[in-house]
Amino acid sequence: MSLSKETNDPQFMEQNTVLLLIGKSGCGKSSTGNIMFNSSVFESRISSSSVTRVSQTHTASVNNRSVMVVDTPDFRYSTHADFDSDSELKRALQLCVSGAHVILLFLPLSTFTEQEQEFIHWFEQKFGAEALRFTLVLFTHADKPHMRTLAELIRGNTQLSDFINRCGRRYHEFNIKAPANRRQVTELMEKVERLVSENTHSFYTLEMMEDEEKRRKEEERREKEKKERERQITLERVRRETEIRARREYEEAKQWQEEEKKKEREHQITLERVRRETEIRVRREYEEEQKKERKKLFKQITLKRLCVIAAFSVVSGLVLMSKKDSSLWMFMCGFITGGSAATAGVGCGFLCRLMWKSSFFSSSPHERPSVFRYFLLKTSGVVCGLAVGAAIGQFVGRNLLLVTFINGLAGAAGAWTALQRGW
Ligand SMILES: Nc1nc2c(ncn2[C@@H]2O[C@H](COP(=O)(O)OP(=O)(O)O)[C@@H](O)[C@H]2O)c(=O)[nH]1
Ligand SMILES: [Mg+2]
C-alpha cells in the first residue's frame, strides 16, 4: 500500500530516511523498492516504456528503520507523449516532504552504454553538483553474466569511474533476481545510514534543484550573452576585414586600370609614331620612286623627241637636197627646216599642255583629263603642230609641197611626242 506524506513535518524528517530513486525505466527502481519493503508496493513488469508514470511513495520499516521510498518514472527517456518531465520531477521532490536524504541513482551494470553516460550527464546538469553529496549509485542487473567484478568494470570505464569519484565512491550492487537475499538490503541500508550521518541528516531539496536551475539558466544566459558578444565582435571584425579587403581590392583595381590606361596611351602614342614614321617613309619612298620614274620617262621622251627632230631634220634635208641641188647648203637648209618644224611641233604640244593645265581649262594643275578631253587635247596639239610644221616647211622650205608635207608631219610628230604621258 502506498502511503503519501505531503507535510513539511520536521519530526517526520527526523524519524524517516527519505530515499529518492532515479534511473532509466527498466533499471529496477520499483523492483528494488519492493525488495527493500519485502512487499509488492510498486508496480513492476517488463515493458518497452516506463511502467511507472507518476511518482509514488511508500513508507515502512526497513531493517528497523523507518524509510520512505519515492519511486519515480524515467524522467529522461519517457516515451509517453503527455509526460511533462520537469513538473513530474518537481512533484517527486515535493513528495519527499522536505527533501531526499539519499538519491539512489540506478545504473544497469551489464550495459553501460552511451545512453547511460548521457543519463549521468543529464542527472548532474539537472540536479547540480550539490546533489552528488547525497547520491549513492545502485548497480542493478548484477545477476546477468558478466566476466569482471564491479570494481573492475568501474575502473575500465573512465567516465563511470570519474562519476563514481564525484559521488564520493559510494555505490552498491543489487540483484533483484535474488529477493530473498536480505544481506544486500542490509548492506544498502548501512551505506544509506552512513551517508545520512555524513551529511548530518541534511537532505537534497526542491529549492536546491530550483537554485541549480536558476544558476544554470543564468550561466546559459551569460554564455549566450558571451557568445552573442563574441559573435558581434567576430561580425565586426569580419565586416572591418571585408571593408579593408574590398577597399584594397578597389584601390588595386583602380591602380591596375590606371596602369592599363597608361599602357594603352603609350601603346597609342607608339602606334601613332610608327604610323607617322611609316607614312613619311612610304611617302618619301613613293616620291623618290616617282622622281626616278619621271626622270626615266623624261629621258625616254626627250630621246624620242630628239630622235624625231633629228629624223625629220635629216629627211627634210635629204628631200630638199634631192629636189633642188645636191649641195650641202641645201641639205643644211632642209635639215634646219625639218628640225625647226619638229621643234615647233614639240613647242605646240607643250603649249597645249600648258594651256590645259592652266585654270582656264582645269581647276587643278594635277587634274587628269578625261579620255575624251585627252583625245581632244592630243588632236588639237597634233593639228596645231601639223599646221605650224607645214607653215615652216612652206615658208622656209623653198615652197616645195613635199617639204611642206614632210615638215607638217615633223610638226605633228613633234607635237605628238610633247603630248605623250607626263601627267
Ligand atoms: N535480470 C534482471 N532484470 C531486471 C533487473 N532490474 C530490472 N529488471 C527487469 O526489468 C523489469 C522492470 O523493472 P522495474 O523495477 O519495473 O524497473 P523500473 O522501470 O526502473 O521501475 C523487471 O520486471 C525485471 O524483469 C535486474 O537487475 N536484473
Ligand atoms: Mg518503475
Automatic annotation (TrEMBL):
<dbReference type="InterPro" id="IPR045058">
    <property type="entry name" value="GIMA/IAN/Toc"/>
</dbReference>
<keyword id="KW-0333">Golgi apparatus</keyword>
<dbReference type="GO" id="GO:0005739">
    <property type="term" value="C:mitochondrion"/>
</dbReference>
<keyword id="KW-0547">Nucleotide-binding</keyword>
<keyword id="KW-0342">GTP-binding</keyword>
<feature type="transmembrane region" description="Helical">
    <location>
        <begin position="400"/>
        <end position="419"/>
    </location>
</feature>
<keyword id="KW-0963">Cytoplasm</keyword>
<feature type="transmembrane region" description="Helical">
    <location>
        <begin position="302"/>
        <end position="322"/>
    </location>
</feature>
<feature type="transmembrane region" description="Helical">
    <location>
        <begin position="375"/>
        <end position="394"/>
    </location>
</feature>
<dbReference type="GO" id="GO:0005783">
    <property type="term" value="C:endoplasmic reticulum"/>
</dbReference>
<comment type="function">
    <text>Exerts an anti-apoptotic effect in the immune system and is involved in responses to infections.</text>
</comment>
<dbReference type="Pfam" id="PF04548">
    <property type="entry name" value="AIG1"/>
</dbReference>
<keyword id="KW-0496">Mitochondrion</keyword>
<dbReference type="InterPro" id="IPR006703">
    <property type="entry name" value="G_AIG1"/>
</dbReference>
<feature type="compositionally biased region" description="Basic and acidic residues">
    <location>
        <begin position="212"/>
        <end position="229"/>
    </location>
</feature>
<feature type="region of interest" description="Disordered">
    <location>
        <begin position="209"/>
        <end position="229"/>
    </location>
</feature>
<keyword id="KW-0472">Membrane</keyword>
<keyword id="KW-0256">Endoplasmic reticulum</keyword>
<comment type="similarity">
    <text>Belongs to the TRAFAC class TrmE-Era-EngA-EngB-Septin-like GTPase superfamily. AIG1/Toc34/Toc159-like paraseptin GTPase family. IAN subfamily.</text>
</comment>
<keyword id="KW-0677">Repeat</keyword>
<dbReference type="GO" id="GO:0005525">
    <property type="term" value="F:GTP binding"/>
</dbReference>
<protein>
    <recommendedName>
        <fullName>GTPase IMAP family member 8</fullName>
    </recommendedName>
</protein>
<dbReference type="GO" id="GO:0005794">
    <property type="term" value="C:Golgi apparatus"/>
</dbReference>
<keyword id="KW-0812">Transmembrane</keyword>
<dbReference type="InterPro" id="IPR027417">
    <property type="entry name" value="P-loop_NTPase"/>
</dbReference>
<keyword id="KW-1133">Transmembrane helix</keyword>
<dbReference type="GO" id="GO:0005829">
    <property type="term" value="C:cytosol"/>
</dbReference>
<feature type="domain" description="AIG1-type G">
    <location>
        <begin position="14"/>
        <end position="213"/>
    </location>
</feature>
<feature type="transmembrane region" description="Helical">
    <location>
        <begin position="328"/>
        <end position="354"/>
    </location>
</feature>
